[in-house]
Amino acid sequence: MVHLSGEAGTSDKEAALLDLITFLKAGDYHFVTPTPATHARVLARASHSRAQDLRDIFGWSLPFDPQQIDPLLLRILRDADMVEQQGDGLKSRLRVSSLGDDLILHSAYPTDGQDAVFFGPDSYRFARLIRQQLSNHPQRAGARLIDIGTGAGAGAIVAAHLCPSADIVMTDINPFALHLARINARAAGVDAHFVQTGDLAEIGGEFDLLLANPPYIADSAGRAYRDGGGMHGGKLSLDMARQAIPRLAAGGRFILYTGSAIVDGRDKLRERLADLAQQQQCLLHYEEIDPDVFGEELDSDAYADVERIAVVAAVIERRASLS
């Protein structure tokens, strides 16, 4: 386990990426990242193969002519080591997406690398779920919050804006994800602690709010940002719940945004989460956010018996102490 304090100094590469966010904000940059399948379709019908503007460079991940962009921007990318050669042009190694008033750095398209940091439609739905939960049931001042598998940091950043006095911890097994999450948090004005770990075993104490948006697809390539393991991709979500629920303080909540494969009309993830909540004397609030996503996955052997993949929200709450 590696601890990276939110108070530590900023490296030259981190400073360059903070400059990138500042540069794009000054230019009123906005981009909403779609699914990879939609991204591919848009690129396939594009009338040009080279970037024409900043959205092409940092949204659609198109190569660009270094002579056609602001020299300051090119220097920022080179200082951050986030530009690479592609043909006779250059390509950003990062995408930048809008999330409310914030800009979020994440991996360029296509996200094929084992250390890729994903942000997309699930991130927007996860953010909406957090806003709904915290707007309806605000956290107390000084609450302790942890974002498990934070990725680019979207969940913790959204929660932090709604809980400005919270003590925030962001974890991920991927050091590149933590690198970007730390920059995204700083750019958003969020102070947090960053821990490189795959579980909660070495993080002490109880939490008032635990957040998780784990991968939920059975990925044959085993990519960490995408592969949810067994149960047709649901095992990682269940494993996170097993770790998180015992760490809930009285009145605390575990907000889980994930997907569940429906087989013969049964949602086995829901059944197992209900059993777990009962065992831990907690309440489970569970709903389908979208009944059918990633339908193309049903063509693979791993989903031969699955009728649909649903996006679900599971909120597990420990009853407040009566004493």
User: Distance between termini?
Assistant: 36 Å
Give the overall average pLDDT.
93
Low-confidence stretches: none
Number of helices: 10
Please provide the ordered H/E string of secondary-structure elements.
EHHHHEEEEHEHEHEEHHEEHEE
What shape does the CA trace take?
globular
What is the number of E strands?
13
Characterise the protein shown here.
The chain has 323 residues and is of the alpha/beta class. It is 32% helix and 25% strand. It has ten helices and 13 strands. It has helices spanning 12-26, 36-44, 54-58, 71-80, 121-136, 154-162, 175-187, 230-233, 235-244, 268-279, and strands at residues 2-4, 83-86, 89-92, 94-99, 102-107, 144-148, 167-172, 193-196, 207-212, 248-263, 266-267, 282-290, 308-318. The strands form three sheets. Strands 1, 6, 7, 8, 9, 10, 11, 12 and 13 form a nine-stranded mixed β-sheet that branches. β6, α6 (154-162) and β7 (167-172) form a beta-alpha-beta unit. α1 crosses α7 and α5 (121-136) packs parallel to α6. The chain is globular and about 60 Å long.
